[in-house]
Amino acid sequence: MKEAFVNICNIPTHIITCGTWVEESLDNVKEVAICITGNPGLPGFYTEFCNALHERLEKKIPVWVVGNVRLILNICVFLIYSGHLGHENPPETSLREVPQLKGNEELFDLDSQVRHKIEFIEKYVPEHTKIHLIGHSIGAWMVLQILRNESVHKRIKKCYLLFPTIERMIESPNGWVFTKIALPLYSVFGFIISLLNRLPEILKIFLVQIYFWFAAIPNYLIGTALKYAKPSVVEKVVFLAEDEMARVRALQRDIIQKNMHLLKFYYGTTDGWVPIKYFTQLKEEFPDIDADLDVKKIDHSFVLRYSKPMACIVGDFIIDNSEILGMTTS
C-alpha cells in the first residue's frame, strides 16, 4: 500500500493505492478499481477495505482510494480511494495548503467534488484502461454525475453503488436528525472540537480510544479519526452535508435509465440514510435493474466494522464483470 498527496483541481488530495501507484505507468494495466468515498471523504477509513479488495482480486487489479476535496496492468487491483476536496489537510511539511472554506465555498460543494473526480480520472487513467468505479454513500451520487462526462463514460467497465444516497436524503431518518438536531447544535459541537484540539496528543488519543471501545471500532482508525476532528476539516464536511441535503432530492431517472447496463446497486437493511423503501421503490420503477439488498446486516458506514465482508462482496461483483479475472476465476 502506498499513500501520498497529489494535486487535483489545484488542491492537495490524499490518495491511497494497493497495486500500481497513480503516477506509475499504466501501459499494461487493462482494468483498475477506483473508490469514491462517502462523507467525510477520508481515505484512511478505507485502508482495510482497500487491502482486502486487492487480495480478493488476486492482486491483479490496482485499487485506488481518492479522498474528497471534502474531505486499477493486467487487471491489477488498483483501488483508488479518492477522498473529497478539503476533507483532509496535507502534512505540515507540505508546501501546498487546502484553502479555507470561507470565501472558497465553490471549491467544496457537490459540483466541485464531481469535477475533482473527473479531473483525477482524466489525469491518471489512460483511455485504454477500463474502470470499475465504486461509489459509497454520497460517492454513489457522484458516480451518477460522472457518467454524464463522455470522456470518463467511455472508460467505465462497471459502477458499483454501495449504500447509495442518491435520492431524498433529507427525508431519511438520518437526514431528519442532521437537519433538525445536529445542525442547530453545530456551534456547540464546534466548540467541543476546538477544546479537544487544545488537549495534549496523548489525551486526545486516550479519549478517542474510549469512544472506539464503546462503539466497537478498530483502533487502527484512531489516526484518521483525529484528522477528522479538526475544525478546518469538520466545517467542510458539514458544508458538504448541507449541500447534500439541499441537492440530493429526486431520483435521477434519466441517468439510471441510460446507464442501467453499467450500474450495480447494493442497499442495506439497517441504513438510516437509505431506508429499505428506497430499494423497493427503485425495483418497482426499474424491474430489470441490477440491485441487491444486503442480508448480512452490514452498516451504512461499513468501513468502521465490516470492511472485509464488504470487500468480498464487491470483489465478487468485479470478478463477475472483469474480462480477465472473470475468465480465469471460478
Descriptive account of the structure:
The chain has 330 residues and is α/β, with parallel strands linked by helices. It has two domains: 2-169 and 249-320, Rossmann fold; 173-244, no CATH class. It is 41% helix and 18% strand. It is built from 13 helices and nine strands. Strands 1, 2, 3, 4, 5, 6, 7, 8 and 9 form a nine-stranded mixed beta sheet that branches. Strand 8 (263-267), helix 11 (276-285) and strand 9 (291-293) form a beta-alpha-beta unit. Helix 7 crosses helix 8 (222-228). The chain is globular, with a radius of gyration of 19 Å.
Q: What's the CATH H-level homologous superfamily of the largest domain?
A: Alpha/Beta hydrolase fold, catalytic domain
Number of separate strands: 9
Quaternary state of this entry equals single chain
Number of helices: 13
String of helices and strands? EEEHEEHEHHEHHHHHHEHEHH
Largest sheet: 9 strands, mixed
Taken as a percent bin, the fraction of beta residues is: 15-25%
Query: Which class of secondary structure composition applies to the elements?
Result: alpha/beta
Spans with pLDDT under 50 lasting ≥5 residues? 70-95
Q: How much is the average pLDDT?
A: 87
Shape: globular
Number of domains: 2
CATH architecture of the largest domain: 3-Layer(aba) Sandwich
Binned, the helix content reads 40-55%
| CATH fold call of the largest domain | Rossmann fold
Which CATH top level class of the largest domain fits? Alpha Beta
Tell me the distance between the termini.
27 Å
Gyration radius (Cα, Å) is 19 Å
